[in-house]
UniProtKB/TrEMBL annotation:
It comes from the Archaea. The gene is tmk. Transmembrane segments: none annotated. Keywords: ATP-binding, Kinase, Nucleotide biosynthesis, Nucleotide-binding, Transferase. InterPro entries: P-loop_NTPase, Thymidylate_kin-like_dom, Thymidylate_kinase. The lineage of its organism: Archaea, Nitrososphaerota, Nitrososphaeria, Nitrosopumilales, Nitrosopumilaceae. Belongs to the thymidylate kinase family. It catalyses: dTMP + ATP = dTDP + ADP. It comes from Nitrosopumilus piranensis. GO terms for molecular function: ATP binding; dTMP kinase activity. This is Probable thymidylate kinase. GO terms for cellular component: cytoplasm. It is an enzyme of class 2 (transferase).
Amino acid sequence: MIIVIEGGDQAGKLTQSTMLEKALKKRKIKTKLFHFPDYKTPVGKEIRKYLDGKRKFPPQVIHCLLAANRWEKLDQILDAQEKNSVLIMNRYYQSNLVYGLANGMKQKWLETLDEGLPKADLVILLDVTQKESFSRQKTNRDKFEKNEEFLRKISKIYKTTAKKKRWKVIDASKSKEEVHKEIMKTFSKKIGL
Ligand SMILES: Nc1ncnc2c1ncn2[C@@H]1O[C@H](COP(=O)(O)OP(=O)(O)OP(=O)(O)O)[C@@H](O)[C@H]1O
Ligand SMILES: Cc1cn([C@H]2C[C@H](O)[C@@H](COP(=O)(O)O)O2)c(=O)[nH]c1=O
């Protein structure tokens, strides 16, 4: 199964996807964690430059690149699916939908970019207020993260999309351990334990 950990800036996606990976491996469940964007690939390097303000692209181009970055990893994803029971995605195509909508792109256009990639079985949205996210100090904010107004928009679109698409929303302003417990509860329920 594919579990996606989603959320805005500093929501705790890296923390929680790593804690989940560790917990599943401890239970002897074969698990592989992917991170998107993957900044190490050729397309990923372009995305990094864009987010750092060193490249300029129209929104259509950056959202195509963000999807292309997943297509670059398709063979690795398929291979990982063969070898593991669970794949965890620290962001996946759901991010492109939310950020793309916030950037004025159409839903159908955005969804077509990722059509054909292995689908998510469970999407967990880590919900934090924009205030809480900003209090989790970060020195180098990227192009999308610098704009507070944009981040408020992202938070709103995440919530409405989660409702429409039945993503599991978890209050991520709680402690790391409490959020992890909630994620484990959701996972157990999903697999019928
Ligand atoms: N539940 C929590 N409570 C308080 N601080 C947290 C919590 N979860 C994560 N943090 C802290 O917030 C910061 C961001 O966490 P993390 O890198 O996991 O978030 P992220 O969603 O992956 O961020 P980004 O999208 O910006 O890469 C880190 O310093 C982390 O230790
Ligand atoms: C995968 C993906 C990401 N984005 C956006 C979301 C963030 O603003 C950046 C990535 O930053 P992070 O600190 O490395 O999480 O890119 C997007 O718009 N579309 C996507 O598919």
